[in-house]
Design a protein that fits this description.
The complex is a heterodimer of chains A (266) and B (306).
Chain A: H1 13-35, H2 51-58, H3 60-91, H4 100-112, H5 115-133, H6 139-162, H7 167-174, H8 179-208, H9 211-216, H10 224-234, H11 238-263
Chain B: H1 2-44, E1 47-49, E2 55-59, H2 62-68, E3 69-71, E4 78-80, H3 82-114, H4 118-133, H5 136-147, H6 152-159, H7 173-197, H8 201-209, H9 214-242, H10 246-251, H11 259-267, H12 273-305
Antiparallel strand pairs in B: 1-2, 3-4
Classes of the chains: A mainly alpha (266), B mainly alpha (306).
């Protein structure tokens, strides 16, 4: 046989792709390796050590910021997922009706605006409300996070719903199930993987946010990312590498879970 | 007959009403904590700055004038505000170059992924998805550690004797560009891969049967077919790049500001909320122009293929 001519081959493409994957992961690997560095500077290797993890663990600011991130992330993700599930039920499996396009546009609107603009807008709006009501708690951050998490939670839920036909629901209705009972016993269990995927996406998006949080937060309301940004601007200590490593592990765990849930087809 | 029709119409009306009720929470939250405040920004851009931040409720077009102009404090004449023009130009330039760079790297990567066997494709997709969902700040920080003077690039070059003193990459436009290309690369690869995956390779084969060269096949067959993915990827990279805040703050240092840093300045030390608002609207306008170009382009290519 003559040397085979591959129709899929393009010169240089594999090399570029390989470079891309290496370049994508190399900085992250370096970051993680230096989290275990015993030396105080990140330019030399002083042997293996866990002391930066220890010092991060004993840093009350880090712990406070982490707990705040989780509190905001969990609340916002749950609220956003509930709102997104209801919205997805309202915008799928139907003939076009007046207002449907408007709903799509409105739900996806937070994706179309650069974060800096939303951040500024909320800074102005919430500072007015703060003066008016005197309240300056975490509610503002939770409201802001819920709003920008909705389109992300909506995506997988809507995708899942669009692949579900109405046969089972019709059968349930034929058997005299009330709409609520049909929803509880038929729609919800089938939709569950989509809802779970949406919840995780929303949580990760909330956990990662820097820009909007930076503008909305009041004094002493640092989340883990805004705390890290402040530290990085001031100078680098390997403690940030240690925090990043833990954060990375958490993200990878959630993404892996998400990947498996959304890949499962039935 | 007429009655049955009426019942059906009533049921449909009830269905639509339920659907509005169901979507109400999402719509209200987004209006209150995302869309609505944008309108306030527009109003604020037309007011007078207050002495300690915030605004005085007095109409003024000064903020919009000072987006590009500078008023001389002695004779009140207007001249081009060089600093603002530089920052606008830097933001637009860096966003465009980032988009081109991610396309140049992302297109072959997506092609590589799409030409793997079905089983391994999922693995490659997973490898691109991980950085995509990894905190942007952490990834920017990772780039910072690589390119700074004591970072591994400079260390390796010094050890190899290629350079005698570290190259200063950090705190420059190049650093911002490298950082943004790194951070936004998955945003380009994912949509391009999505259209590449659907590519029918029988068309490629037909091209070779008709004696096309590899480059002709790429340019005349593959590229036109995956163009919707390329356009979607370019939009997904361009929009966050033009408003990027984290990357220029971390890698650009104080001097190499982008639009978002200029906006932040007006709400901090600058104490000029109206100017900050006007600049935010300006960013929105740039994004909207890009989106409109996308919608028109997407519409046109759909007509051509379908």
């Amino acid at each position: 046989m003559a040397s085979s001519f591959s129709i899929k081959h393009q010169p240089g493409f594999t090399a570029i792709a390989a470079t891309c994957f290496v370049v994508l992961y190399l900085p992250i690997v370096v970051l993680v390796v230096y989290a275990f560095n015993a030396a105080a500077s990140t330019s030399e290797w002083g042997g293996f050590s866990l002391k930066w993890f220890q010092s991060a663990w004993q840093n009350t600011q880090v712990i406070d910021a982490t707990l705040r991130s989780f509190q905001i992330g969990a609340t916002a993700a749950i609220l956003a997922t509930i709102a997104a599930t209801m919205a997805a039920l309202a915008t799928t499996r139907t003939a076009a009706y007046p207002g449907l396009t408007f709903k799509y546009a409105a739900i996806n609107q937070p994706l179309m605006v650069p974060e800096i603009v939303t951040g500024v807008a909320l800074l102005i709006f919430f500072s007015r409300i703060k003066i008016f009501t005197g309240y300056s708690g975490l509610g503002y951050l939770i409201a802001a996070h819920t709003a920008f998490c909705i389109p992300f939670a909506y995506l997988p839920i809507r995708a899942r719903l669009e692949n579900m036909d109405l046969t089972l629901e019709r059968a349930a209705a034929d058997l005299y199930a009330t709409p609520w009972r049909t929803f509880r016993r038929i729609t919800l269990p089938l939709l569950w993987p989509g809802i779970l995927a949406g919840l995780m996406l929303a949580f990760v998006i909330s956990l990662d946010d820097v820009v909007i949080t930076e503008f909305v937060k009041s004094g002493g309301q640092d989340t883990l990312p805004t705390y890290m940004l402040g530290q990085i601007r001031r100078g680098i200590t390997p403690e940030i590498n240690a925090i990043s490593t833990v954060f990375l592990l958490l993200s990878v765990a959630i993404v892996t879970l998400f990947f498996f849930i959304s890949r499962k087809r039935d | 007959m007429a009655r049955a029709e009426e019942v059906a119409r009533e049921a449909e009306r009830r269905d639509i009403r339920t659907r509005w009720l169901l979507s109400a929470p999402a719509l209200v939250i987004i209006f209150v904590a995302a869309t609505g405040p944008l309108l306030i920004v527009l109003v604020y851009s037309l007011l007078t700055p207050g002495p300690y931040g915030d605004v005085k409720w007095q109409f003024s077009s000064e903020a919009w004038v000072s987006v590009f102009m500078e008023r001389d404090i002695f004779d009140d004449t207007l001249s081009l505000a060089a600093a603002h023009v530089t920052i606008f130009w830097r933001s637009i330039k860096l966003a465009i170059v980032t988009t081109i760079a991610t396309l140049a790297l992302g297109f072959p990567t997506a092609y590589f992924m799409a030409t793997r066997s079905e089983k391994t494709r999922d693995l490659w997709l997973f490898l691109i998805t991980i950085p995509f969902w990894t905190n942007l700040l952490i990834r920017t920080f990772a780039v910072l550690q690589i390119i700074r003077n004591e970072g591994i690039i400079n260390m390796a070059l010094l050890k190899l004797g290629i350079i005698s003193a570290p190259i200063q990459i950090l705190y420059s436009d190049t650093a911002i560009l490298v950082g943004m290309a790194y951070v936004y690369l998955p945003l380009m690869v994912l949509p391009v891969y999505a259209s590449m995956e659907k590519l029918d390779f029988r068309l490629v084969e037909a091209g070779y049967d008709l004696y096309a060269t590899r480059f002709q096949v790429l340019r005349r067959i593959i590229f036109p077919l995956v163009k919707p993915g390329v356009i979607a990827g370019s939009i997904l990279v361009f929009i966050p790049a033009i408003g990027a805040y984290v990357t220029p703050s971390v890698l650009g240092g104080g001097k190499n500001m982008m639009l978002s840093n200029l906006i932040e300045l007006q709400f901090g030390q600058g104490r000029n909320w109206p100017l900050g608002s006007a600049l935010s609207i300006a960013v929105m306008i740039i994004v909207m122009v890009a989106l409109l170009a996308y919608v028109r382009n997407a519409g046109r290519s759909e007509v051509r293929h379908g």
